[in-house]
Amino acid sequence: MKYLQAMRIQQWSKNLLVLVAPFAAGDVFHYAVLSKILYALLAFSFAASANYIINDLRDVDRDRTNPKKSHRPIASGRMSRSEAWAVAILNAIAAIGFSVLLPGAFQLTLAIYVALTLLYSFGLKHEPIVELLIVSFGFALRAIGGATATHTPSSSWFLVVATF
Asked: Residue 72: what are its φ and ψ, rounded to 5°?
């Protein structure tokens, strides 16, 4: 259970944004598209979980003093640092495994998402405007990821709306 808590499975619902482009195009219920959406959803979910764990490892001392965050597995001591790194690496491997089943454009989108979230974890979360931009762009990248995974054409309007 501590591993699933560290992975923040409850946050995976954000990754349903990969449905936006194929749903808007009316393609979401085609089997070939649906399987790609599932792979994209899992790739983003495992990538996000890996980053949540890395973020918790970076903030463990601060989280121990936070009334809410102190109950997380790493901050509470229920999960060791080595266990956390192992779970983060397994999540990253799973994310890569699902992403290789998808087009290169999706892999690039996921790589940008991972790079931004790691930059967030390694310090940019302390820069107010930059932090907001990274978080909001993370949502847009999920929607873009759904489009790239399924070869759904994206208009400039779709990209503007997804970003906002």
From this structure: -65, 150
**What CATH number corresponds to the domain at position 150?**
1.10.357.140
Per-residue pLDDT tens digits for 41-81 = 999 999 999 999 999 999 898 988 888 988 999 999 999 99
The answer to whether the beta carbons of residues 139 and 162 sit under 8 Å apart is yes
* Domain housing 118: 2-8+15-163
Q: Count Cβ atoms below 10 Å from residue 31 Cβ, excluding itself.
A: 7
CA–CA distance, 1 with 3 (Å, rounded to integer): 5
Q: How far, in Å, CA of 34 to CA of 146, rounded?
A: 10
**Confidence grade of residue 151 (pLDDT, cut at 50, 70, 90):** confident
Residue 124, CB-side half-sphere exposure with 13 Å CA sphere: 13
Q: Is 94 exposed, middle or buried, given 0-12, 13-18 or 19+ CB atoms closer than 10 A?
A: middle
Whether residue 145 is predicted with pLDDT greater than 70 in this model: the reply is: yes
Question: CB pairs under 8 A, 24+ apart, for 76-85?
Answer: 78/2, 79/2, 79/3, 79/6, 81/57, 83/3, 84/6, 84/53, 84/56, 84/57, 85/53, 85/57
Q: Structurally, how many domains does the chain consist of?
A: 1
